[in-house]
Amino acid sequence: MQLQKLVRIRQNFPDRALPDVSAAVRAQMESADWALAVKPGSRIAVGVGSRGITNIDVITKSVVEFWKSRNVQPFLIPVMGSHGSASAEGQASVLAHYGITEETMGAPVVSSLDVVPIGTTPTGIEVVMDRQAHEADGTMLLSRVKWHTDFDGKLESGIHKMMAIGLGKWAGAKRYHTFGLEYGLEEVIRSAGKVMLNTGKMLGGMAILEDAYHSTAEVAAVGAAEMVEREEELLAKVKSWKPNIPVQKVDLLLVDEIGKNFSGAGMDTKIVNRSGRNGPNTWPDVPKISRIIVRDLSPLSYGNAIGIGLADAITDRLFKKVDFEAMYVNSLTASSPAASFTPMHFASDRLCIEKIAPTCGKLDLRDVTIAWIRNSMDIGELMVSEGLIDEVSTDSQIEIISDPMDLEFDSEDNLINLMNIDSPTH
Prior knowledge:
Layout: E1 6-11, H1 21-30, H2 33-36, E2 43-48, H3 56-69, E3 73-78, H4 88-97, H5 102-105, E4 115-120, E5 126-130, H6 131-135, E6 138-144, H7 159-166, H8 169-183, H9 185-198, E7 202-210, E8 216-223, H10 227-239, E9 249-258, H11 269-272, E10 274-275, E11 279-280, E12 288-297, E13 313-315, H12 316-321, H13 324-333, E14 344-346, H14 349-356, E15 370-373, E16 381-385, H15 389-393, E17 398-400
């Protein structure tokens, strides 16, 4: 198998990392009129999700400490739809793996799937809310604002989505995704969010923005009254920071890991240009990618391999790690069965490449262009093949930081890590 050599490149994105995340969160809370208006002695639910948000433990603890300094009684609730196998214990475990427990945060973690109905949208969607949040004196959510993997809009992933799908727990998440097929997910999120806001139970949220390195770049304490406008502004800002694989077209993309900690879709569809509903190369302004091989599953996805259906081939070692019950629950809840379709799987990385590379539309495998990423979140450093060097060399933000190297395999025919990095470099 003769393939192009690869070089390691670095994308030098603007570094927007906050110098002191805890201080920034505290300052936002202390300047928020809606937070200062909460009466001492109030019991406040703080919702935390399941995504791999940078500094989520620091942000959560800072919020808890603010409330306690105001003589308010905060408690933490998992807000994550069907993640954690759609069980109360599983969702508490997800938070614990992010370092969020009663001992570390200084506030109880109350995990339950019980919901109460709170109203109906104009299109007839019954809206439900986590019972613990509903019974509290108020609720705020900690949410990363970013692009969604399934649709484009002015409101995508963020506080509104967490209000609907997260606070609605598994029951709400199933219902909203079902109606999303008919009305569009943005419309469902907006309308369910409006019902939630009209209850008076929502205080606001801490919007979290991450830069292209996934550093915490901005935090904003957004009150219920201004939530729609502010979230639209923040989403537009973070979309302008979005990174890409820095070429127009790739024949073969190698992905080290997928997982719910990287994306709700396992791998960010707007990075790898796939859609579980609309197929390959759905998104504009994203490189076209002919074939995708996924090598492994992140341990922080707890067996949920949703997103394997976006790949053309996976390894047997990934396949053996799949918790099919957890993956199917997630996929069915999201009304996206294709995301869990099992692709071809082979015993080693070498076999995956040998079988899939010839399907890229190139008669000579030496013409197949390759990109290799760790996961869809960490693309600050990646490998690209020699056939792409001229293209990446025209970008002033890109450094070529290695000589060309052949793909190397170990004794079990699995790739040796040419990137030689354990975390994004910046």
